[in-house]
Design a protein that fits this description.
CATH superfamily of the largest domain: Amino acid/polyamine transporter I
Shape: elongated
Helix content: 55-70%
Mean pLDDT: 80
Distance between the termini: 23 Å
Low-confidence stretches: 4-9, 13-20, 58-63, 209-222
Largest sheet: 5 strands, parallel
CATH class of the largest domain: Mainly Alpha
Oligomer: single chain
Strand order of the largest sheet: 3-2-1-4-5
Order of helices and strands: HHHHHHHHHHHHHHHHHHHHEHEHEHEHHE
Number of strands: 5
Strand content: 5-15%
Radius of gyration: 32 Å
Length: 647
């Protein structure tokens, strides 16, 4: 087992080898930007789907007319989202420079806004990272099923396998996973840029929409009142804001970059903003130019062909053979690859953020532990399990997952940018340009806050209500965990001042039958207790007539031969329970003599292979777990190893 683990994850790294896990800007872009860059594969698609769903139901308007109206509406939506991207990029670049040790929303809020804001931002981002894995990988598989429809019925299985693959790579370490993921990231960027250049060339040659399409677009728009137009724009804008998920990832992972970490992270963020804005705006413009639309499938279990797949077919032409076929399948292949890789952003940030929460006492301490490869293995495993469960529940359908997606990250955006405003205000004596920087972050906070409300309102009935309820619930759980740790610390601190009195010790050996493990337990009990304070306890299941069983009678007849001087007490269990009668007896003894410490010795045998233990009922394990909850009880396990005894 150990050899397989080493082969799968690589050699163990010592704590002083942390510097070997630092990454370059080139690798950093693939590790921390793949989520944001890959969102162009579905952001325009969500804008088109939102517009189609709003216009499709208008009286006297055909689906073709509704599609035609998208030419005018989707472009200002995309321009507005691109503007917001630039604003957030500037704000987060300031965050990176101000917090070179990692300045995600959690750290910024904790230092400048207090614990409640920090836990709210953390809960929103942890939720969003889980959705990132589920949504991105599901979207990648949708790209494959668009190209190969016969695989559609296996999309859930393929998605789960892809998530497991990403998890294994991340268990090996960020540097290894980042180097591996550079190829899909840059391959996707190359294919999209190629698609945009060819699309622009084709648009120049063939011109824009026909007069008939323009007439249909104008006729459709005349059916809309001013309020309806605003509402449609708001819904489309909130849908398209999925393009901005992952923008904050670099600010969370500054410490992963090589020195100077802050400058390298800031440069990487600029490149991410430029690439993301160019690809998103380009795809939206070309989709509007060529009239490529997308509508959600009425059957939630079915996955529709993606907008990017349709656009590639329009631009490349006949994709059934030759170079167009090769380019189309390369585009779909790299789309699948980067959307799977996009999950790596969540794998890079979720374990780090969970470890920060745990270090502050708001999540279980186990999340702060680093594994053999200096990664937060427990966080990676939790992220994998929860995201796979979400994929199974939602049938790996991005139409169901995307409405949940953007709200959480915009909560984080708003809290983070607000925290940065307070950061500059608190340092106005130290920072000459504090007002200018505060205004920049203030603009980011205001715009992110407006979009957050937009998403919450327009997407509420489509799934955003789940996030609205889940985030406060998680915050309450975080604070309950925190109060638990505070209480434990106070109790442990108080116990240091208590005077320790000598206590008598009574040893209770649990016996089922006589074997070498039982005899070893008796000898150990005699060694730790004074003479006369050791007794054995056994549970007997009565027969059909209420008498002692044959097993107990054999035990009783042999007892004095092997365990002379040790009294054997029997408890009858008419309901065939083992643990419950023992717990009841221990409680009775504690109540009768509260000043005495009771040591319970549990003999248990251990087989020479891991699967052999699964063939036994694990009563000792369950009993020990229940005894640990009793105060004044000491539980000692005496393992009897059967190596070589079963031959």
């Amino acid at each position: 087992m150990a050899e397989f683990r080493r082969m799968l994850l690589g050699r163990r790294l010592a704590s002083d080898e942390t510097h070997h896990t630092k990454i370059s800007n080139f690798v950093g872009l693939s590790v921390f930007s793949s989520d944001a860059l890959s969102s162009v594969a579905y952001a325009t698609q969500e804008i088109m789907a939102s517009l189609s769903s709003n216009l499709h139901g208008l009286a006297g308007v055909s689906l073709a007319a509704a599609a035609a109206s998208l030419y005018g509406m989707s472009i200002p939506v995309a321009l507005g989202i691109t503007g917001l991207l630039i604003v957030l990029g500037i704000g987060y670049r300031q965050t990176v420079m101000a917090y070179p040790g990692g300045g995600g929303a959690y750290i910024v809020a904790k230092e400048n806004l207090g614990e409640l804001a920090a836990q709210t931002a953390g809960a929103a981002l942890l939720t969003d990272y889980i959705l990132t894995v589920a949504t991105s990988v599901s979207g990648g598989v949708a790209a494959v099923t668009s190209a190969v429809p016969s695989l559609t019925e296996h999309n859930v299985l393929i998605t789960v396998l892809a998530i497991a693959f990403i998890a294994i790579l991340n268990l090996r370490g960020v540097k290894e996973s980042g180097a591996f993921f550079a190829v899909p990231t840059y391959g996707f960027v190359l294919m999209i840029m190629t698609l945009l250049l060819l699309g622009i060339g084709k648009a120049v040659v063939h011109g824009g929409p026909t007069p008939t399409q323009v007439h249909e677009s104008v006729r459709t728009a005349t059916h809309l009142s001013g309020f309806a137009m605003v509402w449609i724009f708001m819904r489309a804008y909130s849908a398209g804001c999925t393009a901005l998920t992952g923008v904050e990832a670099i600010s969370n992972g500054v410490t992963a970059f090589k020195e100077p970490a802050a400058k390298n992270a800031a440069k990487t963020m600029v490149w991410m903003i430029v690439l993301l804005g160019t690809m998103f705006l380009g795809i939206t413009l070309l989709a509007a130019k060529f009239g490529v639309v997308y509508a959600h499938n009425a059957d939630a279990t079915q996955v529709s062909e993606t907008l990017l797949s349709k656009l590639a077919k329009v631009i490349y032409g006949d994709v059934s053979h030759g170079l167009p076929k090769l380019m189309y399948y390369l585009t779909q292949g790299f789309t699948f690859a980067i959307l799977v890789v996009a999950a790596n952003t969540a794998y890079a940030d979720f374990p780090r953020l969970a470890a920060l929460h745990a270090a502050d006492g708001f999540l279980p301490k186990q999340l702060t532990s680093r594994g053999d490869r200096l990664v937060f293995s427990n966080g990676i495993l939790i992220l994998t399990l929860v995201s796979c469960l979400l994929v199974w529940v939602c049938h790996a359908n991005t139409d169901l997952l995307l409405p949940l997606y953007a709200l959480g990250v915009f909560i984080g955006f708003t809290v983070s940018q607000t925290g940065m405003v307070m950061h500059w205000v608190n340092r106005k004596k130290e920072e000459p340009r504090w007002l200018f920087k505060a205004i920049l972050n203030g603009v980011g906070a205001a715009t992110a806050g407006v979009v957050m409300l937009d998403i919450a309102v327009t997407k509420f009935v489509h799934g955003a209500w789940i996030i609205v309820l889940l985030v406060p619930t998680l915050v309450i759980i975080f604070f309950r965990i925190h109060r638990h740790y505070i209480r434990i610390r106070s109790l442990l601190a108080a116990s240091r001042t208590e005077e320790v009195y000598p206590r008598k010790n009574r040893v209770l050996v649990l016996v089922s039958r006589i074997h070498r493990g039982t005899l070893e337990s008796i000898r150990y009990a005699k060694a730790i207790a004074e003479r006369g304070q050791v007794e054995a306890l056994t549970i007997d299941f009565t027969d059909d007539h209420g008498h002692h069983s044959a097993e107990f009678l054999r035990l009783e007849s042999d007892w004095h031969r092997y365990c002379e001087g040790i009294p054997l007490r029997v408890i009858m269990s008419p309901f065939r329970k083992t643990a419950e009668p023992i717990l009841h007896e221990v409680d009775r003894m504690r109540a009768a003599e509260p000043e005495i410490t009771i040591t319970v010795i549990v003999p248990e045998f251990v087989t020479d292979n891991w699967w052999g233990n699964l063939l036994h009922n694990q009563t000792a394990l369950r009993l020990k777990a229940m005894l640990y909850t009793r105060p004044g009880i000491v539980v000692i396990s005496i393992p009897y190893h059967l190596d070589g005894q079963l031959d």
